[in-house]
Amino acid sequence: MPIPVRRLIAPVLCLLLLAAPGPGRAAAITACFAPPAPGACDPTATLVGALDAARRTIRVQIYTLTARPIVAALIRARRRGVDVRAIVDRSQLREDPHDAAAVARVLAAGIPVRVDTVPGLMHDKIAIVDDATVLTGSFNYTWSAEHRNAENLLLIRDPALAALYARNWRVAEARARPLIAPPAAPPARPNAAAGPIGPVRGNRNSMIYQWPACPYYDRIAPANRVPFPSAAAASAAGYRAAHGCR
What we know:
Blueprint: H1 5-19, H2 23-26, E1 29-34, H3 43-53, E2 57-62, H4 68-79, E3 83-88, H5 90-95, H6 97-108, E4 113-115, E5 125-129, E6 133-137, H7 143-147, E7 151-157, H8 159-175, E8 177-178, E9 200-203, E10 208-210, E11 225-228, H9 231-236, E12 240-241
Parallel strand pairs: 2-3, 3-4, 10-12
Antiparallel strand pairs: 1-7, 2-5, 4-8, 5-6, 6-7, 9-10, 9-11
Helix pairs in contact: 3-4, 4-6
C-alpha cells in the first residue's frame, strides 16, 4: 500500500530543523581577519575586548606574545581579580627579545606563566575566557599578525567547546614547567648596531631575517624565503634580526 506523502515529508522536515542552526547559534561565532578591512572585525580589538570582559578566568596558550595592547589587557584582568594563566613556547621565549620582554611583564604582574615542554613548537594561539568563550585561529599576539600578515581569529561563545579547550589546556599545563624568574633577554649578536652588510633573507613564517653568517641561513624552506636588499628593508617590513650570527 503506498505510504502517504505527509508521512514521508514529516521526518525529513524534523531532521532539517534539528540540523539547522538556531537563531542564537549563528551569533555565537565571530570571524575576524587580518589585516582588518575598514569597518570589519579587528582581531586585536576583538581579543582585547574579550579579555576586558572576563570576570573569572582567562587561560592562554600562545606561540608569540609581543603586542602591547594584548599584554596590557591580560595585566588589567589580573589586577581586577581575574584568574589569568598563560602557557608559552620555549623557542620564542629563548630567541625573541620582544617575546621575552612581554612575558617578563606578564610574569611581573603576578600572572603565572608556564613554558611548554612539547618536543616541537607550542604553536597554539588560544584564549579561553570564563570557561564559555574560545578565541583561536592563526592569529599570534603580535603587531605583525595584525598589520602585515594574512591571519584569522575566531571568537566562539560555546561552553561545551570551551570545556574541551580547557581540558587540553590543563594537559599542556601538566607537562609545562613553571617560569619562576623573568626570562633573560637573548644575548645581542656582536656588532649588532652595525648590522649585516648586503642582502638578507627573511623567513615569512617566523618573521626573522638571516644573512650568510647565520647558522640557519640556508635552512629556511624555499617557500618561506623572502629576499631583502638590506637589513633595513627587512626591518621596515616587520622582520627581526636572527641571533647567534657572526
